[in-house]
Amino acid sequence: MSQLRIVFLDAGTIRRDIQWPDFTELGYVVSYDHTLAHETLERIRDAEVIFTNKVHITAEHIAAAKNLRYIGLMATGYNHVDGVAAAARGIPVCNVPDYSTEAVSQHTIALMLALQSNICWFIQSVRNGEWSKSTHFCYWDKPIVGMHGKTLGIVGFGNIGAAVAKIGHGFGMNILACNPRPKPAPDYAPFIFTNLVDLFRQADIVSLHCPLTPDTNGMVNAGLLRLMKKTAILINCSRGPLINEKDLLEALENGVIAGAALDVVVQEPMPDDYPLRFAPNCIITPHVAWCTSESRTKLMRMIFDNLKNFLKGRPVNVCNNA
After folding, report:
1. Residue 190 lies in a domain
2. 264 and 305 together in one domain
3. pLDDT digit string, tens, across residues 259-302
């Protein structure tokens, strides 16, 4: 009997500085560091199993890959795979939920602290010699804002949103949360579930932790941004297209809000001339919130176990109703 043919389309996003499970135990493995859109079809044509992190898998790809039996996601989000087309052929699309909760919540808080304390500015000013010129033991030329007593608004109260809220509570913050479906409130106070409009009006910090769907695409627009306090900041460690970036740029340039910190943008990787790259009071990290060595190790173990469960006839973490 021929070996199961397993194809990794963008293995380079995970890297080999961590220990990978031995997928050759399960079949013949072909691994590509990166796959461009025009290369996808040829690379999956004979595959029975494909793994993708961010390479798009369309209905055309699924139709052409006659031997395809399983699509494994090296991520939680699944909007880049046509799950309906896969389900029509009985092909499960399996993701890895909750592998990066600790990593993303840590990065989210790091971005909040960086903005509130102007960390990046002060680090650069010291390198520029500004401290050396001071006549006092300390100096500051940017505001430093405390988080205790401020209101943190969490949009999307899943595992990551709840983790960020709990850390915010530990800082002594008041927590507001908005979630599309009813959820039990956590066992601390002050905490209130509210609607999106009231959250944007009341929060000193708004942090996005919701999936990208037709309803959330471009959700944060000029209308919502104008509701925010002029002293408020916006954090996005979720998906870039949640924000209308033209509206955010205008809000930052015109002082509608005090700042923004982003780990994700609409176009990734970011081109050199990307407007938000030069926006005032905006700090951007290159989509790295998820990728601690611990979270990537957990992710690889989960995709290995997902495939083993499928091969045993018991698929888990199926996100397309196949």
Report:
1. yes
2. no
3. 999 999 999 999 999 999 999 999 999 999 999 999 999 999 99
The verdict on 248 and 108 lying in the same domain is yes
- From start to end of the chain, where are the E strands? 5-8, 28-31, 49-52, 70-73, 93-94, 151-155, 174-178, 191-193, 205-208, 233-236, 259-262, 282-284
Averaged pLDDT in 10-residue chunks for the chain of 322 residues: 88 94 96 97 97 97 97 93 96 96 98 96 94 92 94 97 98 97 94 98 97 94 98 97 98 98 96 95 97 97 98 96 82
Question: How many domains does the chain divide into?
Answer: 2
Catalytic sites, residue numbers: 239, 268, 287
Residue 17 belongs to domain with CATH number = 3.40.50.720
**DSSP β-ladder status, 233-236 and 259-262:** parallel
The token duo for 204 is 């000193």
Biggest CA pair distance of the chain? 79
* Structure-token pair, residue 266: 């609409």
Distances from the Cα of 290 to the Cα of 165, 264, 293, 299, angstroms: 17, 11, 9, 10
In a domain, 194, yes or no: yes
pLDDT digits (tens, 9 = 90+) for 91-140: 999 999 999 999 999 999 999 999 999 999 999 999 999 999 999 999 89
Q: How many residues does the chain have?
A: 322
Based on the fold, state whether residues 89 and 25 are members of the same structural domain: yes
CA–CA separation, 68 and 286 (whole Å): 33
Domain shared by 301 and 178, yes or no: no
Q: What is the pTM of this model?
A: 0.91
Let me know: does 225 contact 207? Beta carbons within 8 Å: no
Residues spanned by the domain of 46: 5-99+293-311
3-state secondary structure of 230: coil
